Amino acid sequence: MHEGMSRRSFFKTLAMSSVAGAAAAQGFVESRVATCGMSTEWAYVSGKQYPDPFNQVEVDAIVTTPAGAEERVPAFWSGGSIWRIRYAPQAAGRYKVRSVCSDASNDELNHQSMTLDVHPYDGDNPHYKHGVVRVAPDKRHFQHADGTPFFWLGDTWWMGLCKRMTWPDGFETLTADRVQKGFSTVQIVAGLYPDMPPFDERGANEAGFPWERDFSRINPAYFDMADVRIQHLADNGMAACVVGFWGYFIPFMGQAKAKQHWRYLIARWGAYPVVWCLAGEGTMPFYLSKTPQQDALMQKHGLTELARYVRATDPHHHLITIHPPRTARLCVDDDSVLDFDMLQTGHNDRASVPNTIQTINASLAAEPKMPVLVGEVCYEGIMEASRQEVERFMFWSSLLSGTAGHTYGANGIWQVNTRKKPYGLSPHGHSWGGPPWEVSAQLPGSGQLGLAKKLLTRYSWWKLQSEPDLIDPRWSKENYWMPFAGQIPGEAIFAFTPASYQGATFRNLPQASYRAFFFNPASGIETEIGRITPDATGSWEIAKVPIFQDWVVVLENLA
Of 142, 284, 328, 460, which one is least surrounded by beta carbons within 10 A? Predict the structure, then answer.
């Protein structure tokens, strides 16, 4: 499955790579061919037996790039006496590789050499073509390694690696739907889930749990089944935002095991187009904790240490954030360890709007400067509310306030409700409900956010600036359900006018001629207004809307 491999041949190829690793362990210098940006894999096999190989042995590959730089790539224990390396070369040319092992006496895992001849990628997958996602120079947006802008439109599949999201049928179906709608990112937890205690049967996949029940060692078979899902996202141009665990697992498993877990994730998935989210609800204690304040402080200190550990361990330097109770900045002792701020701002339908806008603006004004985006707000349909008009409002108000993108969620998908068996009760004794995930996937909000992204990406969307004073009246602390505005200087101006208020006037417009049109955010249909010119004061009153509903008014600069 790596580098275009079919899923049917995936596990067969893993076995074949074990043979190649055995040859390397016997002292042969292996030569391999790889493709720039794509994961390539090889194995090292030890003849020396260990009672507890996962805890007793660490293996790394020291990779020398064509430019002469050295990268230390962690291997993951694959079961038995096999350790595997996954690596995504970022430039064409010849690489040199040698193995190192924490057991200096094991010659089969130390000093084994190979060369890697990397050819350019000639396909259309944006992640393989343009490289890993980075923070743009403006510290407000994301871009690929080669400078190509990356539009974060995320979906939320917290429990998407459990067997309730069936492989391949269910997972492939949901992926295809989200790709068609324009989503670029999926938030997904690496097996240590929210809304359940450790080792709840609802969290198992086809091979069980990610760890043995006493957290003594990892379960490689669990990750074999998770691999095919993460690989499928990558092959379909989707970046997995990998959430290591829910924050309350730090007190459950301890900091040492949390580091082992993250080293394993880096080794398994660091060669894919991923973003690292250290934990979900980072500092939220377990629902039934008897020492919540102590746990929250332990989680905050632990996440700060983990951020530094992940940055030092990941050779590809993927972006790091935390899914928070409020903001990622508040989940660490030093927010400079983060690459961007992720926000969670409520599930109370329209009542969550003020907190969302306030939190966005506070984070954008904070130092150090970094991209900001909402990672969780008002799952569509949650608590029999938060319908598509709320999803549209959250998207447009966030983007026009200066966020780097937006993350959607639908109640029923995040917990993977199935037709035969709803998710059921959370530890606190209540159920979030929601329809089966297949039904939730077709709620209208997801498609309408895709239409919004499609409109913005017709322009240099990454240059979009929040310009609230371009529209009158505008949102305020007294009334957040008023128009929002922004502009791409010299290119286009946008105003989102909620159905609750119509009849706004543009103010302070640059003197130019514009093509004006209404964009229906529910259908994507455009209604032409025509060529307009602001008056001497830079004002232009918006024409009467076709019907009373939400609209996006677009002014394209004709100069």
Answer: 460
Cα→Cα distances 141→358, 371, 405, 453, 465, Å: 19, 6, 8, 15, 11
Annotate 131-153 with b (16+ C-beta within 10 A) or e (fewer): bbbbbbeeebbbbbbeeeebbbb
DSSP 8-state secondary structure symbol assigned to residue 347: S
Dihedral sign for Cα atoms in the order 299, 291, 347, 188: positive
- 402's tokens: 């200066």
Q: Is 518 helix (H, G, I), strand (E, B) or coil?
A: strand
For tokens 């596990």, the residue is 11
Q: Which pair of structure tokens corresponds to residue 225?
A: 């089944």
Residue with tokens 């993951």: 76
Amino acid identity at 397: S
Apex 107 CA angle, 103 and 113, nearest 5:
110
Which domains does the chain possess? 2-119 (2.60.40.10), 158-459 (3.20.20.80), 467-557 (2.60.40)
**H or E stretch at 487:** strand 484-488
The total of other beta-carbon atoms located within 10 Å of residue 232's CB is 18
Residue pair 37/92 in contact (Cβ under 8 Å)? The answer is no
Bridging pattern class, strands 142-144 and 59-64: unpaired
The pTM for the full model equals 0.94
**Residue carrying the six token digits 């074999």:** 224
CA dihedral 451, 485, 520, 547 (to 10 degrees): 160
- For residues 527 and 552, the answer to whether their CB atoms sit within 8 Å is no
Alpha-carbon 71 to chain mean position: 24
3-state secondary structure of 108: coil
d(CA 248, CA 245): 8
- What pLDDT tens digit does each residue of the chain (559 aa) get? 444 444 434 433 343 344 344 444 444 458 899 999 999 999 999 999 999 999 999 999 999 999 999 999 999 999 999 999 999 999 999 999 999 999 999 999 999 999 999 999 999 999 999 999 999 999 999 999 999 999 999 999 999 999 999 999 999 999 999 999 999 999 999 999 999 999 999 999 999 999 999 999 999 999 999 999 999 999 999 999 999 999 999 999 999 999 999 999 999 999 999 999 999 999 999 999 999 999 999 999 999 999 999 999 999 999 999 999 999 999 999 999 999 999 999 999 999 999 999 999 999 999 999 999 999 999 999 999 999 999 999 999 999 999 999 999 999 999 999 999 899 999 999 999 989 999 999 999 999 999 999 999 999 999 999 999 999 999 999 999 999 999 999 999 999 999 877 789 999 999 999 999 999 999 999 999 999 999 999 999 997 888 999 999 999 999 7
What is the full DSSP assignment across 128-178? HHH-SEEE-TTSSSEEETTS-EE-EEEEE-TTTTSTTS-TTHHHHHHHHHH
Q: In 3D, which of 504, 403, 526, 336 has the Cα closest to residue 141?
A: 403
